[in-house]
Write a structure and sequence with these properties.
The complex is a heterodimer of chains A (about 350) and B (about 230). Chain A has about 350 residues and is mainly α. Chain A has one domain: ABC transporter involved in vitamin B12 uptake, BtuC (Orthogonal Bundle), CATH 1.10.3470. Chain A has 13 helices and 2 strands, in the order H-H-H-H-H-H-E-E-H-H-H-H-H-H-H. Chain A has a two-stranded antiparallel sheet with strand order 1-2. With about 230 residues, chain B is of the alpha/beta class. Chain B has one domain: Rossmann fold (3-Layer(aba) Sandwich). Chain B is built from 10 helices and 10 strands. Chain B has a 6-stranded mixed beta sheet, with helices on both faces. A 4-stranded antiparallel beta sheet of chain B has the order 2-1-4-5, with helices on one face. In chain B, helix 3 (about 95-100) runs parallel beside helix 6 and helix 6 packs parallel to helix 7 (about 165-180). Classes of the chains: A mainly alpha (about 350), B alpha/beta (about 230).
Chain lengths: ~350, ~230
């Protein structure tokens, strides 16, 4: 079994080497077909899991868009992103005062206020971390590997702060039972879930407008496209870095909070999130925000649906295999199409 | 009046010294071409002047101010723009967005300037929302020039503007460069296409082994025996 897999992998690698363009096209097409089949199966057989996947996917998307922007502009893999998300969730827990409820949602206006506080704290905090950690390295001409490892250090520091301040136990924004409602096609949803997807969609629309309609957003795309030329054209690269952090940090904060609303808060959740986050960003093609969105949806849906489909062999039907699904997708992309679905060659 | 001057520039990459004291001058409104064999340090000189490489010695004086060691952003603000030889457009951005990025540091309304630049390059004006990556080699070169013109520079540094272009496009690019020059922009360029470039230059420099070898008027260098033998193919 193991031998069969390794020899198949070796064969794919050899084909990639000999016919790079054809392999790239076939790789892309087969990924689309695979995920298409999964989508069709889930629509027929696992609608509830599909919907959960969309909710999880939209949360992952907010984080993955940040990772892909940071990768594009600052050129390194930001391993602190998951912990930044969780940190944002805890900041919101800290800032959350007053109960109450907005309509059918489980939380009140205090939560909306807390979201804005967390966005601001993470936005400004990201700039501060950049000044203290990344900028000195950048000015010394450090490689992207050094920056990525430094971000791993930042991740550990953030997690330690969360553990010290809020403790290792799982926490909730609002305790109590919030019943789900019945929708057509045997789907059950909580009003909070609709809030999660709607918030994510609004933020993604704002990111789109920023990237394609504002000067700073265009400069971010320009830096991501050709950093040397951006410098030659006189673009203030430090200013672009700063805005990239603000946006990445604020999006991470909201993603973390939405995750907290959907499930719960726990310091080590951020680290566990890194795998689906990077799988999504790489699946979409690093540097492509649209790709990160599509990638996150595919990863989110695959994780839930694979676990939901009841087949007698792993990873099907066993919730513990969710991270394995994300990991499997990551390996698959790196094998058949390393540039991702929408990435540049 | 001298608008740009490099005096005894010593520079290179890391420990490797490529320029061993090169001096050049560009007068207001001139076209100046630097020619020389591969590895003579022509591109290195451009990068050193523009602040992309640190100087180990010498001075750069631009518009009567010592700008030695200033970063590219400072050069651009003062009116010097640079067009690299390759990868000189943002290929995932549209033509219009490329021009907007050229004008990034402008705080004023640059609409009027964009119209002027479009008027100079009607090919680009015809499809402002086309992605730069889809353009042909010649059109990209035009866009690279257009981008650099957005800031209304006093001096334009061009690194091999005709490199890897089809012969008829070379003609076209040089014609545009002359047109830009006539609008009052001094031009300093490095060229492989020495005969053609010298033919339209006021003055020229020959660089060899990181040092000044010869200088003179464009025509003078074209008729120079040594230049003819070494760089113009007899």
């Amino acid at each position: 079994m193991v031998q069969a897999v390794t020899s198949a992998v070796a064969r794919v690698a050899r084909i990639r080497q000999d016919y790079p363009q054809i392999a790239d096209a076939i790789g892309g097409a087969s990924l689309w077909v695979l995920f298409g089949v999964l989508l069709v199966v889930s629509v027929i057989d696992a609608r509830q899991y599909l919907v959960t996947g969309i909710i999880v996917g939209s949360i992952i998307a907010l984080g993955a868009i940040g990772i892909t922007l940071i990768y594009g502009v600052l050129k390194f893999a930001h391993f602190a992103h998951g912990d930044m998300m969780m940190f944002g969730a805890y900041v919101a827990l800290f800032a959350l005062v007053g109960g109450g409820r907005i309509g059918p949602l489980s939380f009140g206006w205090g939560m909306i206020f807390a979201i804005f506080v967390a966005m601001a704290v993470l936005g400004v905090g990201s700039i501060a971390i950049d000044r203290v950690v990344y900028r000195p390295l950048r000015q010394r001409g450090s490689s992207s590997v050094v920056l990525a490892i430094a971000s791993l250090g930042v991740a550990i520091v953030l997690r330690a702060i969360m553990l010290l301040w809020w403790g290792p136990d799982q926490q909730l924004y609002v305790s109590g039972i919030h019943p789900a409602r019945e929708f057509p096609f045997d789907i059950k949803l909580k009003p909070d879930h609709i809030f999660i997807v709607a918030t994510a969609l609004v933020l993604m629309a704002l990111v789109y407008l920023l990237l394609f309609r504002t000067k700073m957003g265009k400069a971010m795309r320009a830096m991501s496209d050709n950093a040397d030329l951006a410098r030659v054209a006189g673009i203030d690269t430090e200013l672009v870095f700063m805005w990239t952090w603000v946006i990445g940090g604020a999006l991470a904060a909201v993603a973390g909070i939405l995750l907290g609303i959907q499930s719960n808060l726990k310091p080590e959740l951020g680290f566990i999130l890194l795998l689906p986050l990077f799988a999504s960003a790489i699946l979409g093609g690093l540097g492509s925000p649209q790709g990160a969105l599509v990638g996150a949806m595919i990863v989110g849906i695959s994780q839930e649906v694979v676990v939901g489909i009841d087949l007698p062999f792993p990873p099907f039907g066993v919730p513990g295999y969710k991270p394995a699904v994300a990991f499997g997708i990551l390996i698959l992309i790196l094998l058949v199409r390393p540039r991702g679905l929408f990435g540049r060659t | 009046m001298t608008v740009l001057e490099a005096r005894e520039v010593v520079s290179g990459y890391g420990e490797v010294e490529i320029l061993h004291g090169v001096s050049i001058k560009v007068e207001e409104g001139e076209v100046v071409t630097i020619i020389g064999p591969n590895g003579a340090g022509k591109s290195t000189l451009m990068k050193s002047i523009f602040g992309l490489l640190p100087l180990k010695g010498g001075r750069v004086v631009f518009r009567e101010e010592d700008v030695t060691g200033r970063p590219p952003q400072a050069m651009v603000r003062k009116g010097m723009c640079y067009v690299p030889q390759s990868d000189n457009v943002f290929s995932s951005l549209t033509i219009q967005e490329n021009l907007e990025m050229g004008a990034f540091i402008r705080r004023d309304n640059y609409r009027a300037r964009m119209e002027e630049v479009y008027a100079l390059f009607p090919d680009l004006a015809a499809r402002p929302h086309e992605r730069a990556g889809k353009l042909s080699g010649g059109q990209r070169q035009m866009l690279a020039l257009a981008r650099a013109l957005m800031l209304e520079p006093r001096v334009l540094l061009l690194d091999e503007p005709s490199a890897s272009l089809a012969p008829n496009m070379v003609e076209h690019v040089f014609a545009k460069i002359l047109e830009i020059n006539r609008s009052g922009v001094a031009i300093l360029m490095v060229e492989q296409n020495a005969r053609h470039a010298l033919g339209l230059s006021h003055r020229g420099y020959v660089l060899a082994m990181g040092q000044n070898r010869l200088e003179g008027s464009g025509e003078g260098l074209l008729n120079n025996d040594e230049v003819g033998k070494l760089y113009l193919g007899g």
